[in-house]
Specification:
alpha/beta, five-stranded parallel sheet, 10 helices, about 20% strand
């Protein structure tokens, strides 16, 4: 068995709201790592990390690659991961800090950890408070009540996904809905209309949807805008916007399965009122 090499990678999340949502363990790595590589867009959080880290590298300028011919977001993410790996290969304890949860819509962390492990370095990911966690709290939603479906907006559009309109649906990154080039950080009304048309297969056009944006610092207000589905193409959306679609139908009881379960000798009878 090959010995673990000296360098090590720890990927942490900073939460959505500056230092207030950083776990104590993540904070300890940010403070004690040889270098912190940051992919955090919020300038206040970046400045806070820079102030407590021993050494600090920001990789956000790598997004400038998207302005080069032939480059797309995939190339940019690869370069960000390579920047992290350069520090690990130098034998350093590296803390890679991402906003929210380091494993949710953060392919850079997954790429870097996979590469580090394949090269014999120790690498791990710590959980963080994600936008989904904030969404559940801010909207007062219990995912266990009707169930929850969660996917990226463009993925929903271009693949044959089976949506259950009796469950909550969350579509991430609608500001990129239908953007297939991987070179632009925006969509168009026409593309969002395609998204609406596909959603209309399962939801009425007057069904109320929610545009949500988590607050990232104490002076910022959480965005919770409710509007009919048909108005989505003209709504303002930015990178932090999430589309939340509440259930449009009641749960339908599968009586055949209930009867089958109640017929099993070890199964207690379940009153109808409890099963509703």
């Amino acid at each position: 068995m090959n010995a673990i090499k000296k360098g090590k990678l720890i990927c942490v999340g900073t939460g959505m709201r500056m230092a207030g949502q950083v776990t104590p363990l993540a904070l300890s790595y940010i403070e004690t790592a040889d270098v912190v590589v940051s992919a955090v867009p919020n300038i206040f959080t970046r400045d806070w990390i820079k102030g407590i880290a021993k050494d600090f590298i920001c990789v956000l300028d790598h997004y400038d690659d998207c302005n080069m011919d032939g480059k797309n977001r995939g190339d940019t993410y690869r370069r960000m991961a390579d920047t992290i790996l350069e520090q690990v290969r130098a034998g350093k304890m590296v803390c890679a800090a991402f906003y929210g949860h380091p494993g949710i819509f953060a392919c850079i962390a997954h790429i870097a950890i996979k590469d580090a492990r394949s090269e014999g370095y120790g690498a791990e990911m710590l959980p963080g408070i994600s936008a989904e966690d904030c969404l559940v709290a801010d909207l007062g939603i219990d995912p266990g009540r009707t169930g929850m479906q969660s996917m990226e907006a463009t993925q929903f559009m271009i693949y044959e996904r089976r949506i259950d309109p009796s469950a909550l649906l969350i579509l991430w990154q609608p500001f990129l809905a239908g953007e297939l080039s991987l070179k632009r950080f925006e969509t168009t009304q026409a593309r969002v209309q395609v998204l609406v048309d596909k959603l209309a297969r399962d939801y009425p056009l007057d069904h109320e949807v929610i545009l949500y944006e988590a607050a990232t610092h104490p002076l910022e207000r959480t965005r919770i805008d409710r509007l009919p589905l048909r108005e989505l193409p003209t709504a303002t959306m930015v990178g932090a916007t999430t589309l939340v679609i509440p259930a449009a139908q009641a749960l339908k009881r599968d009586q055949a399965i209930v009867d089958l379960l109640n017929a099993l000798p070890e199964a207690p009878l379940m009153p109808l009122a409890q099963a509703a």
